[in-house]
Amino acid sequence: MTKEELRIVFMGTPDFAVASLRALVEGGYRVVGVITAPDKPVGRHGSVLQAPAVKQYAVSAGLPVLQPEKLKEEPFLRELQALQADLQIVVAFRMLPEAVWDMPRFGTFNLHASLLPQYRGAAPINWAVINGEKETGATTFFLSHGIDTGRIIRQERLPVAETDDAGTVHDALMIMGAKLVTETVDLLTENNGNIDTVPQEALYEIATELHPAPKIFKDTCRINWEQTAGQVYNFIRGLSPFPAAWTVFILPEGPVQVKIFQSEKRCENHSSAPGTIHTDGKHYIDIATKDGFIRILSLQLSGKKRMPVKDFLNGTKISGVARRTPISIEYLDRLGNHPPANTGD
Questions:
Q1: What is the pTM of this model?
Q2: How far apart are CA 119 and CA 109, in angstroms?
């Protein structure tokens, strides 16, 4: 069987998945259908529906698109069966029921943005950077029972620099992953689906060796200044540019949520309590951690645009007197300052 004959159904939703779908289409592979999430209401009153990135590309490429609300319902399963796929490919989609992933004769494989079995879960890129990993990667594996636990087909490694953030790693893995997807399809095509795979259990001895990558929520993103400067620095870059780490500044008008996108770490002895703000009011803001300081480089006030810290200080008075900001999430909710929720990778 050739790649032009192999019938592929692609499943994905965000921009990360578009790169893989585009690689298949432009590579001459036969994509007979695309499954993605329903359009979402956007705008101030949710009056406008926005199509997922995968749907936008699929429509532009003239591909049939299905957007089921529920993957177990019979009407969708019949539509999927009618596509007569030999292979299904999943990139940044939702959990599939067995009736879906077990349908094609070559099975269903998933592209995951980590070196499995490490960082199973919804936000592998964020957590790898938050944990200060020097290396991550991408994995293709066959879906089976259990999230991100199936047999590994191929892996590719990616070094992570100390200056990388989740955004730069995301973009690099998006390109790497698209290439890995086409290579995996080629491998399956050349061998008529009969390929060697590696069980993930062979790659670790005990489950405690594994780092999870759970979904990120608004309370996950709050900075804990009691940690070391290195931990806070990794936390900020691991959530940048989205959903963004946040803290609270006390301004003349009261407490306000501040997202922090870029920072520098300064490890040095000091006597300030963690969370203490040091600033000259013009050029810098340093915040004390357990063993040093984090210098803020760019930030965003709630409801405002992202800006360099000098621009922020030029228009905002913030006390140079050391102070802490132990404001609870519940108190912020009452103020109406809601940190962002994140759906993960």
A1: 0.90
A2: 17
